[in-house]
Amino acid sequence: MKKVGSFVVDWWRLVVPYFKSSEWPIAVPLLIGAILLTFSSVGLEVLFNDWSRRFYDSFQNKDEAAFWREIWTFAWLAALFIAVYMTRAIVSPYLRLRWRRWLTRRYLAHWFDGRGYYRIELQRSADNPDQRIAEDLRQLGEYTMELLLGFLQAIGLLLSFIVILWTLSGPLSLAPIGIDIVIPGYMAIAALVYALAGTFLANLVGRRLIPLNFQRQRLEANFRFGLVRVRENAEGIALYNGEQREAEVLNARFADVFANGWRVLFTQVQLVFYQSGYAQIAIIFPYLVTAPRFFAGAITLGVMMQTASAFGQVQKALSFFLDNYTQLAELRAVMDRLKGLQAATDDKPATTVAVTPSAAASDVGVEGLTLSLPNGQPLLQDTTFSLPRGRATLITGISGSGKSTLFRALAGIWPFGQGTVHVPAGARVLFLPQKPYIPIGTLRDAVKYPDEHSTASDGQIVAALEAARLGHLAGRLDEDAHWSNVLSGGEQQRLAIARALVFKPDWLFLDEATASLDEAAEAAVYGELKAQLPDMTLVSIGHRPSLRQWHDRRLELQRAPGQVGQLVEVPVA
Hints:
single chain, 573 residues, alpha/beta, ABC transporter transmembrane region fold, Rossmann fold, 2 domains
């Protein structure tokens, strides 16, 4: 019961928010419509059940007029049945589609809020969030609607047919076996006992499907991610002749998928054994218990067939959990994965590096900065320094000293630390990492990124490309491409420089943003930045001696392995 209660509570928390959202004027009527259509189908089943008695009685009575009358009755019942199910086939999927859109927007917003997507990747706190958003949200709506409407239909069938079955089955006397007991409505009791026994047996086997389905979704996502990685890093793999290694990794990941798939299959076969045997026995069972009364002349053929039909409906209603155990197990796994994603996104650090605009500040000031690695190893401790306006500052240090981590902290995205970065109010700040992010789309949008409201003209964009030594791309502004795969590493870094020239920041931070350029190209782009953005304050992170000529001040991050680092000002030359 605890597991059932936990399932219902988790399901309620995931499902109800949509029907309380701004979409409720459409969502709630669609849900009510789907429920009404479900109960309408139950009503039609009751009418069909009563029709079966009259139809089969027409055979027993050899009443041809009654036979053709029931044929016409069947025709309009069938027409209503088709209309109800066609309408239901529109209403329920449309509700699921709108629901998925709302859930996707909500989870994406939550994922991006506070840079949760970035923290999850750093902490590895939730595997494959892309799969959880793309697949699990879809499955949540599909399984919920199918199971909810199926459960309501089962309730409707049970309430409708249990009375019919109780009335039709009559009393059962156990006197022939020496027991002076009469069981009223024995068919209804038999259906209940039969369904409970079947559900109990199925649960013994089927409960193993919940963790197996959770594992299946994770392993499938890992395999797909590996395939995407090969596609995105095709050139590097080809240059290293790494095909054999990548094939071994992918085959190993699929071996996990196969092993888990076999366990799922083996469990499902056992479950199907119970389900199929249970269903086959249910076909003949009502005839076995009603045949003696029919042959004794106590009931007609129509009553016998109606009783068998009613038993089938009651048995079907009571077997809802048995018949849908696999879907329930998959829904439980989907809910666990969505809960895990929510928990990972909500797991925000107690302390962070705060980037705060200050009307009184003219410089970028860093106060009480403490940084550590995800494993807790300290990098900096209570460090305070300033980056004066108008003075180009170079931050250096040996590889692994923590320069890029400091860069991320100045941007306010590093979650393992605390302190305050004061930025002049209203200042335009741009950070260029060593590997620039270039969105898929037109070259024009790639240069404007991330300023979606940029009013830069095509002429300004072309001028920026030419200044960044990318003039050969000037005629491709409208070309839609995956530019990270089209451009070389150096070209990508020069495109980021063009982006800075278009953005016109007041403060520009570069983390080895020209490391893929030769010294002549590096000197050219730095010269363009200085010439075209004379009021910009430049902060570069790198270790090339050639960078020093473009800076007025140098800070060195000195850190021995395993020790806390220190930021020390040293001569530029």
